[in-house]
Design brief:
Layout: E1 2-6, E2 17-22, E3 25-31, E4 37-39, E5 50-56, E6 63-68, E7 76-81, E8 85-93, E9 104-107, H1 117-124, E10 137-139, E11 145-152, E12 154-156, E13 158-161, E14 168-169, E15 173-175, E16 180-187, E17 196-202, E18 213-220, E19 226-232, E20 238-242, E21 247-254, E22 263-268, E23 275-278
Parallel strand pairs: 1-7, 8-16, 17-23
Antiparallel strand pairs: 1-4, 2-3, 2-5, 5-6, 8-11, 9-10, 9-13, 12-15, 13-14, 17-20, 18-19, 18-21, 21-22
């Protein structure tokens, strides 16, 4: 895909880039030529119909572009104008205070009110989408530190999450254009067995199915919370859900290559052994 990145006056942005956003963090990146033109190539997974692309530049807020495309197809995103933005520097920690490497930090794009944020933990702790990823993203290093650039100016909230962990969010943080806010700490506790349903998708012969398609629905017994979607297992065929204590999960796994029959489970509760969904 190709695009031209400019500022609010239409001038080309030196140092701007297009970057593939993946659930695991920032992916392949392509820098811009002096005229602001950039060309990015991505590799689609089987049955993947699109990607999220980040258009960014130091000192500017990133733009998220959800692009539908097929293998071998080229898409022109046109001219993308970026507004001024800033960055946040911080650390993601275990409850003990130890650093948590490999956590993904992202901007809260839900628009949820404070009272709704606890419910959003459940939505965020589901298998990932490949086609729709939040932008911008950062991944913590061995010391648990991160720098999340490309944030819009104003008050924002960040989320941090990792496999086997409860997604956690920050209070509102003030972001100033062209500046870096610092000192942010996000504590991400482990998921308890009473909160978690996890498992793996296997081929009939026992091999794992990377990026298996997962169709699911869960609801609480009083139906005050219901949610359904289609997501993907990770690159090792694993999946994980955080659920309310009285929730029931129904899940169907499908082969992204369409070689095998689906496998399903119904009305699964938290606290049980890890699920094995073996395709037929």
């Amino acid at each position: 895909m190709v695009a031209r990145l400019v500022d609010a006056t239409g001038a080309p942005l030196a140092g701007a880039f297009l970057r593939w956003a993946t659930p695991q963090g920032p992916g392949v990146r392509a820098g811009c030529a002096p005229d602001g033109q950039a060309r990015l190539e991505v590799e689609l997974q089987p049955a993947q119909s699109g990607v999220t692309v980040e258009a960014g530049c130091r000192g500017f807020a990133s733009r998220s572009e959800e692009v539908r495309l097929a293998p071998g197809e080229s898409v022109d995103l046109g001219t993308l104008a970026l507004a001024p933005g800033g960055a946040v520097r911080g650390r993601v920690l275990e409850p003990s205070g130890a650093p948590l490497p490999g956590a993904v930090v992202s901007l809260d794009s839900s628009g949820a009110e404070p009272a709704q944020l606890e419910g959003w933990r459940y939505v965020r702790c589901t298998p990932a989408r490949l086609e729709r990823v939040e932008v911008p993203l950062a991944v913590t290093g061995a010391d648990g530190e991160f720098v999340l650039a490309g944030l819009p100016e104003g008050r924002v909230r960040l989320w941090a999450q990792a496999y086997g962990r409860v997604p956690s969010y920050t209070p509102p943080i003030e972001v100033l254009a062209g500046q870096e806010s610092y000192g942010v700490e996000i504590v991400v506790p482990p998921l308890e067995a009473s909160q978690r349903v996890a498992g793996v998708v296997l081929e009939p012969g026992g091999a794992r199915v990377p990026f298996a398609v997962l169709q699911f629905e869960f609801h609480t017994e009083d139906l005050r919370m219901t949610y359904h979607s289609e997501r993907r297992a990770d690159g090792e065929g694993r999946f994980e859900f955080m659920l309310p204590p009285d929730a029931l999960l129904t899940l169907t796994a499908l082969d992204p290559h369409e070689r095998f029959a689906p496998a399903s489970v119904e009305e699964v509760r938290t606290g049980g052994p890890e699920l094995v969904l073996r395709l037929g």
